[in-house]
């Protein structure tokens, strides 16, 4: 059944459920739990965006549950190079995604559950949503989860089990969060970067916290059992997160499996392609300057402890300007100090692609192969 | 008395926004003429102030208060064109990215780089230093559909905002 037919059916159900819901509680908007059948981060982000843009939430609320393969997801205004080693992701088979909401960087894998609470702008309430999740963990797994003053979900007072972010528009809004069910935490720690890497930027930062998996506190807990628990709690709660009792579940619109494709959601593929594009993921990075110093091997210069500095200005993910400052004796027949800006790089993506161009540009200034490779290696470390 | 009241009327007529001390014949009173701005407002809590064909756009006090501390302002670039109510940027406060909507159709002429460097200006001075961007209006008649200050104040008092 296409989404439009489902939508019509949902609409009729919603109206019927709304009238019966109003008999029991005036503050229980009809609710549905959607479960995405895809584990592609871009398709799921596109699905969330489609619902936000096209659905009428004035008399309906949706909890969208989804998970995906390994990914680093940065916030809308973040710098991916500051949050992770971008160059290393490909080998680790981790993709980089940028979401539309604010907040910091998170790591997803199949052990992580994503929850998106989609409502009208008036119905948006982050704390209520997190309270519903905490209630679910308590009711079905006996876990002591609470919402702290940063609106983070924490276990036993201090371990973060969830990251939260939101997008507010008119007429709709959404709050989404992660839940660490059974994530590879070693992998996560290795991938989420806390190094400075010499980047100066106005981009939003991430705030690091100690984390733990829910499965470490309740063996056997997994994403599937979490989906059921949180979904049921969502359906039995009113709009303020107050439990209406188990019987309230049958008065709601239940669980629905959804497929994030054009057949179900017209126009979704175009949105998916945009979210997966280099232009969105990297090109939307706030402008930044990166400056790093590297120790020069003794045989390439005339003094001990000499440093080579690489500085780049990056605008919309591309190199706007670049300069290399060399120590005495590094470039033959040239004084120490700033080498003339290596031209030919402007407009190049801030990536491994720039390294080859740097090598070629440097070769014009100095015949030494070793020095050329050294400069290229320095630049490579900057762009990663 | 008559001379005094004529003097009073002339003084009041010439009064700028500053308070004037006026002798009414019985006692000195301070009169501050109320001055409404010519800003127009949308139901998305944005304001636009037009001079000729150039409109300056920002968000209202209600909006900045609801947002909380702004940590990042993503503003449209000069040269971009938008239709009325297109999403044209975002303001990020702690954990929420709020969309910016273009209140009138037009082409972006400039953006406030001071606000990009110091997003907190939006909270401190949303009508002056915290302006967001300027555009050249392409459909001046769209202003007729926006609220004036009195209508916006009334709108804030309703439940629907």
Automatic annotation (TrEMBL), chain B:
Protein purpose: The H protein shuttles the methylamine group of glycine from the P protein to the T protein.
Keyword Transit peptide: yes
Keywords: Lipoyl, Mitochondrion, Transit peptide
Top-level taxon in the UniProt lineage: Eukaryota
Stated name of the protein: Glycine cleavage system H protein
Co-factor: note: Binds 1 lipoyl cofactor covalently.
UniProt cross-references to InterPro entries, sorted A to Z: 2-oxoA_DH_lipoyl-BS, Biotin_lipoyl, GCV_H, GCV_H/Fam206, GCV_H_sub, Single_hybrid_motif
Alphabetical list of Pfam families matching this protein: GCV_H
Cofactor: (R)-lipoate
Organism: Cloeon dipterum
Subcellular location(s) per record: Mitochondrion
Swiss-Prot/TrEMBL GO biological process terms: glycine decarboxylation via glycine cleavage system; protein lipoylation
Residue numbers carrying N6-lipoyllysine: 95
Gene Ontology CC terms: glycine cleavage complex; mitochondrion
Quaternary context: The glycine cleavage system is composed of four proteins: P, T, L and H.
Domain Lipoyl-binding: 54-136
Family of this protein: Belongs to the GcvH family.
HAMAP family assigned to the protein according to its UniProt record, in alphabetical order: GcvH
């Amino acid at each position: 059944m296409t989404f439009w037919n489902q939508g019509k059916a949902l609409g009729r159900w919603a109206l019927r459920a709304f009238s019966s819901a109003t008999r029991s509680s005036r503050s229980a908007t009809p609710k549905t739990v959607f479960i995405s059948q895809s584990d592609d981060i871009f398709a799921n982000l596109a699905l969330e965006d489609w619902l936000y843009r096209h659905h009428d939430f004035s008399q309906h609320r949706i909890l969208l549950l989804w998970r995906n393969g390994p990914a680093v997801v940065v916030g809308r205004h973040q710098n991916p190079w500051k949050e992770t080693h971008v160059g290393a992701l490909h080998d680790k088979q981790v993709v980089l995604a940028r979401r539309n909401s604010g907040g910091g960087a998170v790591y997803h894998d199949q052990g992580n559950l994503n929850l998106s609470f989609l409502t009208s702008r008036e119905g948006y309430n982050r704390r209520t949503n997190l309270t519903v999740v905490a209630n679910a963990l308590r009711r079905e797994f006996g876990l002591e989860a609470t919402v702290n003053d940063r609106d983070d979900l924490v276990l036993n007072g201090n371990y973060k089990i969830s990251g939260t972010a939101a997008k507010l528009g008119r007429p709709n809004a959404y709050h989404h969060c992660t839940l660490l069910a059974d994530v590879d935490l070693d992998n996560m720690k290795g991938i989420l970067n806390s190094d400075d890497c010499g980047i100066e930027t106005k981009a939003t930062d991430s705030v690091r916290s100690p984390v733990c998996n829910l499965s470490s506190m309740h063996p056997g807990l997994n994403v599937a059992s979490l989906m059921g628990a949180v979904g049921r709690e969502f359906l039995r709660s009113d709009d303020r997160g107050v439990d209406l009792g188990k019987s309230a579940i049958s008065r709601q619109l239940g669980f629905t499996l959804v497929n994030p494709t054009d057949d179900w959601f017209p126009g979704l593929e175009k949105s998916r392609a945009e979210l997966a594009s280099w232009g969105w993921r990297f090109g939307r990075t706030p402008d930044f300057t990166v400056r790093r110093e590297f120790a020069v091997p003794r045989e390439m210069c005339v003094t001990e402890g000499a440093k080579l500095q690489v500085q780049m200005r990056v605008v919309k993910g591309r190199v706007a300007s670049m300069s290399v400052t060399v120590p005495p004796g590094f470039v033959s027949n040239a004084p120490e100090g700033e080498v003339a800006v290596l031209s030919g790089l402007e407009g190049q993506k801030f990536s491994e692609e720039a390294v080859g161009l740097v090598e070629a540009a440097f070769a014009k200034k100095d015949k030494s192969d070793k020095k050329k490779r050294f400069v290229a290696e320095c630049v490579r470390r900057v762009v990663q | 008395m008559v001379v005094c009241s004529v003097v009073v009327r002339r003084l009041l007529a010439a009064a700028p926004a500053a308070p004037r001390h006026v002798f009414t014949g019985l006692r000195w009173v301070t009169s501050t003429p109320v001055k409404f701005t010519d800003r127009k407002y949308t139901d998305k809590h944005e304001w636009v102030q037009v001079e000729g064909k150039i409109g300056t756009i920002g968000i209202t006090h209600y909006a900045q208060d609801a947002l909380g501390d702004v940590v990042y302002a993503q503003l449209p670039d000069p040269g971009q064109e938008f239709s009325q109510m297109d999403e044209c940027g975002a303001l990020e406060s702690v954990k929420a990215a709020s969309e910016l909507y273009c209140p009138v159709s037009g082409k972006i002429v400039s953006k406030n780089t001071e606000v990009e460097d110091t997003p907190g200006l939006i909270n401190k001075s949303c009508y002056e230093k915290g302006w967001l961007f300027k555009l050249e209006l392409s459909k001046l008649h769209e202003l007729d559909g926006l609220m004036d200050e009195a209508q916006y104040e009334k709108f804030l008092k309703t439940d629907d905002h």
